[in-house]
């Protein structure tokens, strides 16, 4: 690792497991001062202790919770350089059986939570000294482009992340805030949850591997590497973009055999 984020202050939501955990590990290894914000206190504390991050219990769907995180950053760090809006949930309900409570809950985490994150991020990054600005990276999905019919709310929310990201990015650019905003689009990624499922259902692994022309799942390290590039000073002309990490999944026409 090469200190690409040395002394930068970074919030990572949903950092207690999966892709977010990979992000916390990589950003800490690159010298960042990471605040891991998650509803899962047990795993949040575990990952923070292992990687050297600060853990703050945080519900992305709550305005009060964002205000409290904003206060922590201002008081304890005095700057925010990057925000990774990564927390997300699934619902596993199709249009035939989705109920409004489930739909609203998912949207409140996957979309409203991300919008609130962008507001907080912009507020704090505007206060950075001499217009240093910052970077926001929103975790979307290959599902932003390819529908999962068995999860209508998730599919809709991840398509929504694209619009949210572009709107906020263009706002920040035209206001000359020096704040860049991009979305990343993982395909099926080998998280711990998925590893457990694969262990129990070997046939699932073959099916998931077939989803990408590269014939395999992605890793959390590969997704974290893309987030790192976008959050770093190497991506200073990237904003409003959609960055795939999915082995070519959305490039492929449905196979004929
Ligand atoms: N794993 C994949 O194959 C995949 C593919 C594409 C996109 N994604 C996206 O990547 C992101 C991370 O997913 P993951 O696969 O690592 O799942 P995960 O379940 O391992 O991690 C999600 C994290 O978000 C946290 N979280 C949930 N609700 C929250 C809330 N209200 N406030 C704060 N934290 C909350 C959870 O506690 C958990 O730590 C999600 O946005 C997901 O949609 C995942």
Structural account:
The relative contact order is 0.14. The chain is α/β, with parallel strands linked by helices and 257 residues long. A seven-stranded parallel sheet has the order 3-2-1-4-5-6-9, with helices on both faces. Helix 4 (100-126) links the parallel strand 4 (82-85) and strand 5 (134-139). The protein contains eight helices and nine strands. The chain has helices spanning 18-29, 41-51, 63-76, 100-126, 152-174, 192-200, 202-209, 220-231; strands spanning 9-13, 33-38, 54-57, 82-85, 134-139, 179-186, 189-190, 218-219, 242-245. The protein has a single domain, classed as Rossmann fold (3-Layer(aba) Sandwich), CATH 3.40.50. The structure holds nicotinamide-adenine-dinucleotide. Nicotinamide-adenine-dinucleotide binds next to helix 1.
Secondary-structure blueprint:
Blueprint lengths: L8 E5 L4 H12 L3 E6 L2 H11 L2 E4 L5 H14 L5 E4 L14 H27 L7 E6 L12 H23 L4 E8 L2 E2 L1 H9 L1 H8 L8 E2 H12 L10 E4 L12
Parallel strand pairs: 1-2, 1-4, 2-3, 4-5, 5-6, 6-9, 7-8
Helix pairs in contact: 1-2, 1-8, 3-4, 4-5, 6-7
Nicotinamide-adenine-dinucleotide (NAD) binds next to helix 1.
